[in-house]
UniProtKB/TrEMBL annotation:
It holds the Pfam family DnaJ. The lineage of its organism: Eukaryota, Metazoa, Ecdysozoa, Arthropoda, Hexapoda. It comes from the Eukaryota. Gene3D superfamilies: DnaJ domain (1.10.287.110). This is J domain-containing protein. It comes from Clastoptera arizonana. One of its GO terms (biological process) is cristae formation. Residues 15-83 form the J domain.
Length: 176
């Protein structure tokens, strides 16, 4: 059987190694040979009957997808670590191609957390508002006097700025 059930999600996971009938540590030449062999069998142009042609096309596309993933060392490492769901995650273009399977798994988990956070942001639509009242009249009152360089004794040459009020407001939507 070329599919297995993922315990966490209950989703049936495709096993490309089983589909191509190769071992998990197969070298690239073995992957190439398996791809060529199955491509000759499942190529849609080899079949005349329309129903067989459609079925062959599905299997041919699956063969191509398995080959594309297993022949690329980076995609293969992701597939080996996380399965097909790891390959469907957006954002893998930021992952360096020199990462170990453990680092790829950690990157996948980070991207999944970010995706979940974005989803929650969209559902709750958080909004914040900060209001600050500042008294800055001292800045301009210094220039009302005729001689701007004649400071009063004991008065600072720097203007005094006061925060007279501050308020914070946060709101979220809670869909029921």
């Amino acid at each position: 059987m070329d599919e297995e059930c993922d315990e966490g999600t209950g989703i049936i996971e495709e096993d490309y190694y089983t589909f191509l009938n190769i071992s998990k540590d197969a070298p690239n030449d073995e992957i190439n040979n398996a791809y060529r062999r199955l491509s000759r069998i499942y190529h849609p142009d080899k079949h005349l009957d329309q129903s067989q042609k459609k079925e062959a096309e599905l299997l041919f596309n699956k063969t191509k997808k398995a080959y594309e993933i297993l022949s690329d060392p980076h995609k293969r490492a992701i597939y080996d670590s996380l399965g097909t769901r790891g390959l469907e995650t957006e954002g893998w273009e930021i992952v360096q191609r020199t990462k170990t399977p453990q680092e790829i798994r950690e990157e996948y988990e980070r991207l999944a957390r970010e995706r979940e956070e974005r989803r929650l942001q969209q559902r709750t639509n958080p909004r914040g508002n900060v209001t600050v009242n500042i008294n800055a009249t001292d800045i301009f009152s210094q220039y009302d006097e005729e001689d701007e360089y004649d400071y009063e004794i004991g008065r600072s040459p720097f203007p005094v700025i006061e925060v007279s009020a501050m308020s914070l407001m946060q709101s979220i939507e809670a869909p029921l």
